[in-house]
Amino acid sequence: MLLNSEVAASAFTDPDVKSRFVSWVATECLEISQKRNRLALYNSFLLKAGGASQSALTHARKSFGYSSSLLTVVSRGLVHRSTANRRLRQESAAARASIPNTVDEDACPRLHWIDNYAKCYAANSIFIEREQFRSMLWTAHGMKKLPFNVDMSWVPKAPDLFYPALPNLQDLLGREAIESLFTELASFERLQFDTSFAVLRHVTRIPLKPVPATPDEKVHLASSSDGLRFLHPVDIYPENVVSRVGLITVLHRLQQLEGFGSPEHKRFGSYSLLHADVAIFWQALRLFYCYSGMAPLRQDLFLALGFWHPYLYAHVTVWNEFRHTFLAPAFFILFPTQTLLKRPRLSHSSTFFTWLRLAYQQIRPLLSTSLSDAETKMMVFEMDHVRDIKYGKPLGKINNPHRAKYIHLLNLQTLFEFCLPVLQDYGSLLKSNDFISFKEAYHKLLLLFTLCRNKGSHDYQRTMFVFALLLRYWEANGLPIIDLLRANHTAFSEESGEIALSVLARGTPPASRADLQQVQHHWQLVRLNFDFHDEMNQESPQQEKKHRLIRKFSSLFPFFVCKSILRHFYMFMLAVFRH
Amino acid sequence: MLFLGTDDVAVGLLVAHFLAMIPSIVAGTWKHSVIGLSAQAFEALTGTKQIRKRKQSKTTTVDGKDGKDGKGKDGKETEEGSAKPDYKWTQADINKNLTFDSNPHSFFVSSSHLRVRFDQVLMRFAKSLRNYNYKEITPHISTVFGAMYVGLQDSGIATLFPVRGPGRPPKHSQPDDKSDFIKQPLIKPPRLLCSDYPKKPISHVHILATDIVDEQSYVFVEWEGEVQPAGCWVRYSSLNPATRAWLLWDLEARFPCFDFTRFAPRQRCESSVEVVEDSSESDIPTASSSSSSSSSLSSSSYSSYSSYSSYSSYSSSK
């Protein structure tokens, strides 16, 4: 259904059609090209022009087996929609059914991930009704196939005795471990700016990601292990994992699949891996430690804290600590007409904090001098007061007027010298391939949370505290999870799951969002979608700028006109028939 | 994906903003907003109670914590009728209640204060295990996993971190008792004492300094009651342990991030005002000369302290 060039030209003589078309193209470009994904933009134009839904054509290659060339996509995209849907359903069902086989093969370590499904709608600002929301409190389950040859068999401690994945409480909270952790935290200096990874490597990309410095790092960064590359959707369960009952049921489902704590399972004698966000990690940890009967599960299951949520929430907690004094006024300097949210989006916070970091180079000399002056004045005042007392002047404690100024300046310096570097180092190093530096950044972030006084940070304090102790235990005893972390700690970021849920939330039609079977079906399509795009990107790896993209696809001009004209025609017919 | 740079307009605006703000803090003309503070902090800062809007309708628990029955995990109503704090602000909001916190706390703490925070985290972990709701969870474990996965309903945390009951603690702590390495926030001892003046209770310890003659640490103490002179320098080592611990805690709170071990003010710390110092060695005014030179007890006279050079060199080195 193509328009010839004459029709297209005549359509564009109408200024209304022209303006609507241009706005439509602009909206599409803005929405889709944010990630500079040439293929996505390209596909979108095709889909919009052809009148098919986006999911239909993006999965078309898998369903119909055609090649990825433009003409073939267009021609084969005209297959009846019911046929396409049927084949897609078959494919997703096959992918879902193949999960147990994958586990049985036991070829590579699998890092499981679980999270609440409905939460992603709120996180993505997708409005849904309250009742509908409650009916969707399900659990999304995915797993990462980690491409590393690491033996997950139990590590012997003594004859017939093996190290448990989660140690006994006595071992976990041993005095030496706690003292050693505190010593490490107390050793960190307040002034971190000069040694900051983000500063030294000049990390200015949003989302934070360093420019590779070595070939290994380049390969690692290109693999985007915290994206969808290693993630495979497993299933959507009807239980709510955030509730206690739901967590127990979901863990049982996981146990049936992976076999941890089950002597009858074929994987008996091997460790398993599970990572989750703070809330789930905390609930699961307490569950495992509060019942002696859970010892078999503690023996097998490495429960890991997802590294991404602490990074996400650290932004919130820095806002909470410094909003009323320094951050809110600075925010309104940049955005005077905007609203400042209590929990700004991560991308907004990250951009704002990076600007602050970049600005600090010019602020630093004045701040340092002013702080020294304030300190001197404060001490002078104290010494004068002491002398007054000694020689019979008024007694008692008096309020040093310079102390408040000194502490405010000190806090401002701490924000720039400690909080922002620590936060951004963690985010940058999470994506890098240097686990030792990342581990240090993790401990610094733990210190940052420990210093925070707002209530929201309490969950992160204790969770990161326990996980720091777990890391020490795993490292001290050479357990296989440490090998995996050394090989690729980025894969332990649960951002992959969040991205997958985001793709699911946006890709599921509104009418199907509360339908469990439909959501299960669309959950499998997340991976198929990624595979398709990944292959296409590999075929055309060179990145080009956006303005070139638009020019390149100008040959598709008549396609775009089609939709706009049809829409106008439809509106016109509606108006005619109503009258 | 977005790349930022120092030539961004935003960076220039931020630099200008902070370069204007820092001198205003020093000058004492700077004020800040009170947005987003907890009710307690708001009250402490402004002296007034915060009035918050009550929510009219019940809203969904976004994190879904047992939201089906509208109750949170503790069985309390989640949202209905509760005072909901603000979650967004405009520029007008931050200009509404501008104030200056004259008693701020330092965000960054170290040594003993950090240890207390650290131990509080540990204690919260222990408390969380201690307060586990076995009654609610155990039936579900039995149903889903089976009774064999229940076993003993005890984490053992009470053995590791026993909770002290009411009454006097036992004289000899048990070998496994970890309470000795858990730091509690210090409270001021009922009596601050030093061995040099055992019969004179100390009201307040003002500051720690290094004597330029013997290079020892001294503290300036103020005596309780009507005593003349009201205070004097005493050796730091003469303070009893409880007083010493309190002093370090208090100094860290009053002079945060100030390293007294390296940068303590250096001056002549005389233990008695009767000692008359030769002015050629030190310019510290004596009691006999204080009446005639009282006008010199201003901050400008600090430059006459021999410590000033070392102090200013510290400041510049920072």
How would you characterize the overall build of this protein?
The complex is a heterodimer of chains A (about 575) and B (about 325). Chain A is an alpha/beta fold and about 575 residues long. Chain A has helices at about 5-10, 15-30, 40-50, 55-60, 60-65, 70-75, 80-95, 100-105, 120-125, 130-135, 170, 175-185, 195-200, 215-225, 245-260, 280-290, 295-300, 310-335, 345-390, 400-430, 435-450, 455-475, 480-490, 495-505, 515-540, 545-550, 555-579, and strands spanning about 110-115, 140-145, 155-160, 160, 205, 230-235, 270-275, 300-305, 340. Among the domains of chain A are: about 5-95 and about 540-579, no CATH class; about 320-420, no CATH class. In chain A, the strands form 2 sheets. Chain A has a 5-stranded mixed β-sheet with strand order 6-2-1-7-8, sandwiched between helices. In chain A, strands 3-4 form a two-stranded antiparallel ribbon. In chain A, a hairpin with a 2-residue loop joins β3 and β4. In chain B, a hairpin with a 7-residue loop joins β4 (about 215-225) and β5 (about 230-235). In chain B, strands 5-4-3-6 form a 4-stranded mixed β-sheet. By secondary structure, chain B is of the alpha+beta class. Chain B folds into 3 domains: about 10-55 and about 65-95, no CATH class; about 110-165 and about 175-180; about 185-275 and about 300-315, no CATH class. Chain B is flat, with a radius of gyration of 28 Å. Chain B has helices spanning about 10-25, 40-45, 90-95, 110-130, 135-145, 155-160, 240-255, 260-265, 285-290, 305-315, and strands at about 1-5, 90, 200-210, 215-225, 230-235, 265. The model of chain B is unreliable at about 55-85 and about 270-318 (pLDDT under 50). The chains are: A alpha/beta (about 575), B alpha+beta (about 325). At the A-B interface, α10, α12, β5, α15 and α16 of A face β1, α1, β2, α4 and α5 of B. β5 (about 205) of chain A pairs antiparallel with β1 of chain B, so a sheet runs across the interface.
